[in-house]
Write a structure and sequence with these properties.
It contains 29 helices and two strands. The protein is mainly α. It is globular, with a radius of gyration of 26 Å.
C-alpha cells in the first residue's frame, strides 16, 4: 500500500513551510536596512503617484485596492535592487563599482540639467540609489549586504500598501481642494456665500488666502505660497485624521485573528506579494518566483497590449483597440458593459468559485431589479452622487445589506470579540495577544478614543452630539464592510453602495439634523464618500502578510505602519500642494479640483432645505438587511445553496459595471481548469493569473518611467475610470 502523500498536497505543505519569515532560531531579523528601504519607497510612492496622475496625467497608481504603484515598486525592489545588492555582496570591488556608477550617474545627470528639481520623483529615486550604494560599500566590507530578507520585504510591502491608501484618492487629492474650493468657486449663481458662509464653524478649518485661493487653482504662485493660511486648518484636520486612522488601525488589529485564523479569509490581494516573498532566498541572485515560465506567459499579455496602447500615443499610425464593449438592451433600459482588465481577471481567479458566482449573479439580478423599479414608478426622495447614484432605492438596499453583513460577522465572531474585551479589561491570562502588532488593550482604547475623537471633532464644529455619534458608528461599519469584501472577495475595485453622510442626512432627514449638522457632515465626503481605497482595508491586508513573523517583530511592524501613515500623508500633501501652486489645480485634475469640491458644497446647499426622512428608502434599507440575513442563513444551513451572499450588498455597485465580466471570465476559467485539470493544474495555473496582475503593474510602471524621460503627457495605459 502506498503511504506517501499525494504530490499536489505535498507541494501545498512545502509551500506552507516556505512561507516562514523566521530563521532556524525563530527570529525574523528586521534591521535598519529594511526601515531605510521601506521609508524611502513609501515616500517615493507618496510623491510619485500624485505626480503621475496630476503632472503627467498618466495611469493612476493608487486609486483602487489593486495598488499597481505598490506592486511595481515591490517588483523593482525584489527583481532589481535586491539582485544588485546580492551581486555586490560577492565582491568588494563590485560594491565599489556599483557605488561609483550610481553616484556618478546621479551627479552627472543633474549637473547637466543645471538645477535640481526638488519636486521631481526622479531626483529622489536617484538620491536613494546613490546613498544606498554608498552605504553598501562599508556593509560589504564587513561581510554584510543591503539585500533584504523575507521579513524585511514583507515590512516594505505592508508600508507601501498603507501609503497607497493615502497618497491620492484615499485622502490628499480629496482634502486639499475641498478646503479651498468653497472660496474659489463661490459665485452669485450658486449662492454659497449667502447660504453656506454663515454656517462656518468658529474653528478655522477652511483655507482663504484673501484672493479666493486663485494661486492654488490657477498656478504661477510657487514663489509666493501663503503658508500661514494653511497651518491652522491643517492642524484641525490633523486631529480628525489622527482619530480616524487610530480607529482604523485598531479595528484591523481586533479583527485580524477572526478573519485570518478563524474564518480564514482568502486575502486575494496579498497572494502575489506572498508568492514573491516565498521565492526570495539568501542563496542565488534571482527571486525563485520570478523564474516560473507560466508567470511570464501571463505577464506578456498585459505587457504587449499595454505597450501597443502606449506606443499609439507616440505614433498614432499604430493600431489601438479597447477592451470595453457595450451590450445594449439587456433588459428594458438596462445595459451591460464588458470591461476586461488583466489585473482584475488575475485577482478574481484567486477567489473561490462560490464567491465569484455570487458576485456576477447578484450583479445581473440588480439590473433586473433596477428595471423593475423603473417600470413600477417607485421613487426615492433622495439624490446621491456617490454609491449607487443611478437608483437611490438600490443604494439604500445595498447599504442595509452591507451593515447587516458586518453585524452578522461581528455576531459570528462574538467569542473572539469577548476574548478581546476580557484581555483589554483585565489582562486575562488565557487570552494571548502577543502575536498582534499592538495589545488588545491598546487596540480597544484606540477604537474608543478614535471614534470618540471623531464625534468630539464634529461636535466642536457644531454638529449635534447624537448625530456625530451615529455618523461615526455608521461610517466605521461601512469601512469594515468594504474591508471585508476586499479581504474575502478580492475585489480590487469596489465602492460602498451607500455612504454614511448620505444615509444620515437624507435617510433621517435634514430637518432632524439641523443646518450646522448638514454642513459639517458634508465635509465627511472628503474621507467617507468616494472611498475607492482607504486605510482600514490596506492595514487588514498588511496584517495578513506578517502572520509568519516572530512576535517581537510584529510589534516593531506597528511603528513601521505608523511611519508609513505619516510619510504617506505628508509626502503626498507636499507634492499636491506644490504642483497646484506651480501649475494650477484646475489644469492638473479637473474632477479633484472642481467636481469634488463642487459636489461637497452643492450637496450641503441642497440638503439645507428642510426635508423629512426618506421612509421608502429606509424601508429598502431594512429590506436589504433582512434579505442579507436570509442569504447568510441559507449559506450556512442549506447545503445546496450555490451563491455566496457577499455579492448582494455590492451587486448594484457602479464599479461592478467595470469588473463583473472579469469575475465571470475568471470564474468560468477556474471551473474548467478544476473540472478537467484538477488541483495540480489549478496550482500551476495560479502563476499565469498572477502574471496578469504583475504584467499590468509592470506595464504601468515602465511606461511611466519612459514618459517621464520623454516628457509625454496624457499616456494613461490601464485605467478603471
Amino acid at each position: 500500500m502506498n503511504r506517501s502523500l499525494p504530490t499536489p498536497y505535498g507541494q501545498h505543505l512545502q509551500g506552507n513551510q516556505d512561507e516562514g519569515l523566521t530563521d532556524a532560531t525563530g527570529r525574523s531579523y528586521l534591521t535598519l536596512r529594511g526601515f531605510w528601504v521601506g521609508a524611502f519607497l513609501s515616500f517615493f510612492l507618496s510623491i510619485g503617484a500624485p505626480y503621475a496622475n496630476m503632472a503627467m496625467r498618466a495611469t493612476n497608481m493608487a486609486f483602487d485596492f489593486n495598488t499597481p504603484g505598490a506592486i511595481f515598486l515591490f517588483l523593482v525592489l525584489v527583481g532589481l535592487l535586491n539582485t544588485l545588492f546580492k551581486l555586490a555582496a560577492r565582491d568588494f570591488r563590485l560594491a565599489v563599482g556599483l557605488a561609483l556608477l550610481t553616484t556618478g550617474g546621479f551627479c552627472g545627470y543633474w549637473a547637466s540639467r543645471g538645477a535640481v528639481d526638488w519636486y521631481s520623483p526622479g531626483f529622489w529615486l536617484g538620491a536613494f540609489l546613490a546613498l544606498s550604494s554608498l552605504w553598501n560599500v562599508p556593509v560589504v566590507q564587513r561581510g554584510g549586504t543591503l539585500a533584504l530578507n523575507r521579513a524585511e520585504l514583507v515590512l516594505v510591502y505592508a508600508m507601501l500598501l498603507v501609503v497607497s491608501a493615502l497618497c491620492t484618492m484615499g485622502l490628499t487629492q480629496q482634502l486639499l481642494p475641498a478646503l479651498t474650493g468653497i472660496f474659489y468657486y463661490a459665485s452669485p449663481a450658486n449662492q454659497w456665500a449667502e447660504k453656506l458662509f454663515p454656517l462656518f464653524p468658529a474653528q478655522r478649518i477652511l483655507v482663504e488666502d484673501g484672493t479666493g485661493n486663485r494661486g492654488f487653482y490657477e498656478g504661477g504662485a510657487l514663489a509666493d505660497i501663503p503658508y500661514a493660511t494653511w497651518v491652522e486648518p491643517l492642524c484641525w484636520w490633523g486631529l480628525l485624521l489622527l482619530s480616524l486612522y487610530g480607529a482604523m488601525v485598531s479595528t484591523a488589529v481586533i479583527l485580524r485573528r477572526q478573519w485570518v485564523e478563524r474564518e480564514r479569509l482568502a486575502y486575494p490581494l496579498t497572494q502575489l506579494g506572498v508568492a514573491i516573498v516565498q521565492g526570495e532566498r539568501s542563496t542565488g541572485l534571482l527571486n525563485g518566483f520570478l523564474k516560473h515560465g507560466a508567470l511570464w506567459w501571463g505577464a506578456a499579455l498585459p505587457l504587449a497590449y499595454g505597450s501597443l496602447k502606449a506606443l499609439h500615443q507616440y505614433y498614432p499610425s499604430l493600431p489601438n483597440f479597447g477592451l470595453i464593449w457595450l451590450l445594449p438592451s439587456f433588459i428594458g433600459q438596462q445595459n451591460l458593459q464588458i470591461w476586461i482588465s488583466f489585473a482584475l481577471v488575475g485577482f478574481s481567479y484567486l477567489i473561490s468559485t462560490q464567491i465569484a458566482a455570487g458576485i456576477w449573479i447578484f450583479y445581473l439580478l440588480s439590473k433586473v431589479e433596477a428595471e423593475f423599479l423603473a417600470l413600477s414608478g417607485l421613487k426615492s426622495t433622495s439624490k446621491f452622487v456617490y454609491g449607487v447614484s443611478y437608483e437611490p432605492l438600490l443604494a439604500y438596499q445595498g447599504g442595509g445589506a452591507l451593515i447587516a453583513m458586518v453585524l452578522l460577522g461581528l455576531w459570528t465572531g462574538r467569542g473572539h470579540l469577548r476574548d478581546v474585551w476580557r484581555k483589554a479589561r483585565s489582562g486575562h491570562a488565557a487570552v494571548d495577544d502577543g502575536d498582534e502588532i499592538m495589545s488588545y488593550r491598546a487596540a480597544v482604547l484606540g477604537v474608543f478614543c478614535g471614534t470618540g475623537g471623531i464625534v468630539a471633532w464634529l461636535w466642536l464644529m457644531g454638529t449635534p452630539l447624537w448625530v456625530g455619534a451615529l455618523f461615526a458608528v455608521v461610517a466605521l461599519l461601512v469601512f469594515i464592510g468594504i474591508s471585508r469584501v476586499v479581504c474575502e472577495a478580492g475585489l480590487a475595485a469596489v465602492r460602498s453602495p451607500m455612504i454614511a453622510p448620505d444615509l444620515i442626512v437624507q435617510g433621517i432627514g435634514s430637518q432632524t439634523i439641523g443646518a450646522a449638522g448638514v454642513f459639517n457632515l458634508s465635509f465627511a465626503y472628503i474621507w467617507s464618500a468616494d472611498i475607492r481605497i482607504f486605510l482600514l482595508a490596506m492595514v487588514a491586508n498588511g496584517l495578513k502578510l506578517i502572520q509568519n513573523m516572530d512576535r517581537h517583530s510584529r510589534r516593531v511592524v506597528f511603528w513601521a505602519l505608523v511611519a508609513a501613515i505619516f510619510i504617506g500623508v505628508t509626502g503626498s500633501c507636499w507634492m499636491v500642494f506644490h504642483l497646484a501652486y506651480k501649475y494650477g489645480g484646475i489644469n492638473l485634475d479637473s474632477w479633484r479640483f472642481h467636481g469634488g469640491p463642487s459636489t461637497i458644497y452643492n450637496a450641503a446647499q441642497r440638503a439645507l432645505e428642510p426635508v423629512g426622512a426618506d421612509w421608502l428608502g429606509l424601508a429598502f434599507f431594512a429590506g436589504g438587511a433582512a434579505v442579507m440575513a436570509l442569504l447568510t442563513w441559507a449559506r450556512h444551513h442549506v447545503l445546496w445553496w450555490p451563491f455566496h451572499p457577499i455579492g448582494f450588498p455590492i451587486g448594484a455597485n457602479f464599479m461592478l459595471d467595470k469588473i463583473w465580466a472579469c469575475v465571470l471570465l475568471a470564474w468560468a476559467l477556474k471551473k474548467l481548469i478544476l473540472r478537467f485539470g484538477g488541483a495540480a493544474h489549478y496550482r500551476t495555473s495560479q502563476h499565469f493569473f498572477m502574471g496578469l496582475i504583475m504584467g499590468e503593474a509592470l506595464c504601468n510602471g515602465l511606461w511611466l518611467v519612459i514618459d517621464y524621460f520623454t516628457g509625454k503627457v496624457g499616456n494613461a495605459v490601464f485605467i478603471l475610470g
